[in-house]
Amino acid sequence: MPQYITDKTQLKCDKGASPAPLTVTSQSFMSIEGKLQATEEDKQPNTNIKPFGFCSVLRSSCSPSPIKWDNTSDFEIEGKKELLDCSTCQCSVGGKISVVKSAQNFVEE
After folding, report:
1. Rounded (to 5) percent helix, strand, coil in the chain
2. Of 10, 54, 65, 100, which sits 20 to 30 A from 24 (CA to CA)?
3. For the segment 8-35, what is each residue's pLDDT rounded down to a tens digit?
4. What mean pLDDT comes out for the span 56-72?
5. Residue 96: how many CA atoms within 13 Å on its side-chain side?
6. CA distances, 23 to each of 12, 59, 60 (Å)
7. How far is CA 72 from CA 60, 84, 85, in A?
8. How many CB atoms lie within 10 A of CB 100?
9. Reduced to 3 states, what is the DSSP secondary structure of residue 104?
10. Residue 103 pLDDT level (bands cut at 50, 70, 90)
């Protein structure tokens, strides 16, 4: 079952060399375990999504250029769809950004 993601969740780009943490700035009141919940508006380069090291498309440092988050939740925070651990974001350079590891501590039941 997909899980919501929060601030500091590790993201990766399939064309980048290293993961980078997501920084949530799209809203300031919905949180899980004290971490702000991410929405589809958390896609600003260098603010929400940090560089992923070396980019195999550009053959230089990877400065993310996110377009739009896909596979988002049906639920919204202030009209913005919530991100899930299965959400992906296409980069205009050619890569695909996805979740490596959530910042939450999930408990299996």
Report:
1. 0, 40, 60
2. 54
3. 999 999 999 999 999 999 999 999 999 9
4. 91
5. 6
6. 13, 25, 23
7. 30, 6, 9
8. 12
9. coil
10. low
Rounded distance between C-alpha atoms, residue 13 and residue 26, angstroms: 21
Res 30: pLDDT = 95
Please report which helix (H) or strand (E) contains residue 81, including its range.
Answer: strand 80-81
Domain ranges of the chain: 10-100
Q: How many CB atoms lie within 10 A of CB 50?
A: 18
pTM for the model stands at: 0.88
Phi-psi category of residue 41: left, alpha or beta, with phi > 0 → left and psi -120 to 50 → alpha: alpha
What is the pLDDT confidence band of residue 105, given thresholds at 50, 70 and 90?
A: low
4: β partners: 84
Residue with the bigger pLDDT between 86 and 102: it is 86
Q: What's the token pair of residue 60?
A: 């230089």
Rg (CA), the chain: 13
Evaluated on CA atoms 56, 60, 61, 62, the torsion sign reads: negative
